[in-house]
What we know:
Layout: E1 7-18, E2 21-32, E3 36-41, H1 47-54, E4 62-67, E5 70-71, H2 77-83, E6 84-88, H3 99-109, H4 116-125, H5 142-154, E7 160-164, H6 172-188, E8 192-196, H7 200-206, E9 209-214, E10 217-222, H8 224-228, H9 234-253
Helix pairs in contact: 3-5
The protein binds adenosine-5'-triphosphate (ATP).
Adenosine-5'-triphosphate binds next to strand 2 and helix 1.
Amino acid sequence: xxxxxxxxxxxxxxxxxxxxxxxxxxxxxxxxxxxxxxxxxxxxxxxxxxxxxxxxxxxxxxxxxxxxxxxxxxxxxxxxxxxxxxxxxxxxxxxxxxxxxxxxxxxxxxxxxxxxxxxxxxxxxxxxxxxxxxxxxxxxxxxxxxxxxxxxxxxxxxxxxxxxxxxxxxxxxxxxxxxxxxxxxxxxxxxxxxxxxxxxxxxxxxxxxxxxxxxxxxxxxxxxxxxxxxxxxxxxxxxxxxxxxxxxxxxxxxx
Length: 255
Ligand SMILES: Nc1ncnc2c1ncn2[C@@H]1O[C@H](COP(=O)(O)OP(=O)(O)OP(=O)(O)O)[C@@H](O)[C@H]1O
């Protein structure tokens, strides 16, 4: 695997079993600081399980995960979660709290209150008006809610951003815009980002490295350019074929 020296997040022979199912099967992987890694693969291939073992929503059955030089099991849970921003598809905004309270919940749980200015700043980062702070979640569109989810993930100034199908439920235009925004934030704040997605096109366009999972294992670990050039093997290429075929058909239409 790449960059062993500059590793910031590493997985060493990590497995997770659920009864008879081996969801993650001996994954060894090193991610350097500042990397933007996309994790793709069929439904049930183990992507979410791998991601959730980083912030210890799930614990491994075997192996070690090391973040910034420390085994995640040795980092107190509140401290671990403060260092990690987590965005997931179902967003999970608290319905009885307004937008500002939702964004401030992480810092509040760790004893810090966010100023209205800071909440406004976080809203601006995701291109929402600061006045949105007093809206309730059910008064927002899906895209706006997901933007609030990203702002909330950034509220603790995390080093690591974990995203589990963050844009899955959004329309394509919003999805594209929010993806670009997240990439800009990733660069601006020097984040390390791991994003689970079903969408190979999204992975190729946003990530600097694409990991393909199949039956709990990583079967390809390539740059987007290498995947587009045909590298990565059969499972990876079957996924790349989808956006390639679409691009070919669009090109035919314009002829
Ligand atoms: N809490 C659980 N209990 C039992 N089995 C589980 C549990 N969580 C996941 N699994 C199983 O582990 C395997 C991997 O699931 P996981 O959610 O990690 O896959 P995934 O690649 O993220 O899928 P999807 O793309 O559909 O979200 C699946 O077979 C799933 O049924």
